[in-house]
Specification:
This protein has 318 residues and is of the alpha/beta class. Helices cover 40% and strands 13% of the residues. A hairpin with a 2-residue loop joins strand 2 and strand 3. The termini are close together. 46% of the residues are buried.
Length: 318
Amino acid sequence: MTLKRLTYRSIAAAINGLSYLHPRLAGRSAFHLFATPPPPHIRPKEQAFLDTARRNDQPSGDHLIPVYEWGPEDGPVVFCAYGWGYNVGRWRHFVPRLVAAGYRVVAFDLPGHGHCAGSRQLTYLRAAEVEMDLIRWLGGTDLILAHSFGGSCLVESLALLPPQLRPRRICLLAIVSEVRWLFAGFVRFMGLRDVVYRQMQARIEQLSGRSLDEFDVATVAAQLHAIPTLLVHDPEDAVTAYRNARRNHSHWRGSWLYSPVGAGHHLGTAEVTAAVLDWLIEGAVPAGAVQNTGELQPLPAVVDAAAMEVNGVTDFYA
């Protein structure tokens, strides 16, 4: 067991102990841990890439969001959103070709990530709020490129934005299909008691006015079927299980599912990068991708933490 896992398990033991005396406080403590990203770590090569950008920070709620731009200021916009624990350096292999094609590439740091100062707490709705604020500021976006957590939140964002602000083409890398999957994976990994899980769900309802089941990426994505979309997911992804891609694809009529084996959760291989850029710039469908032409039966959501083993999901917080 790694030091990180041992630390999480020690905290979980304390939360489970607290749950016998104060279940609500235990649930709030678990939710606080769940909603806290790992400390930002920007490698020198990533910072060198950030230093090539124009910086144009924008307000969103209580945060000033670091925004990075490359390419012509009046060019069509490619809006990029990365995953949990990443930073804008994640896009360094994508930007040069997009800029060469005449695009203005815009990327940003979510709260708790990169160079974003202030509270490090980040929820699904807060991330979606940041994304909506930035897309409104941009006056819309031409293309979307998003990964993992950032991509899942963007589905929510796009569904809430007016059609005129939505993109003409989307590429989503290794996104989840429902927020309950994240909660169930966290609970399973931590070994938290059922009462803590119930209190975490109660905390979500208190903060958002919505039940956990209502945060369903796949069913929301069905509203975006008019936008050509490429879903990219490695069937062997050890962070976000492939069942998420299959479920999103089953609900998202017209979407293409590209499944490069061995590319991992990061999906950072040269082959995948080239395929993604071909799709964004030219609308070229990767070889082997399959389309949902409307014949797929929509797959159900994960019901509880016990179902995670059945679905083959591995530790999200590993």
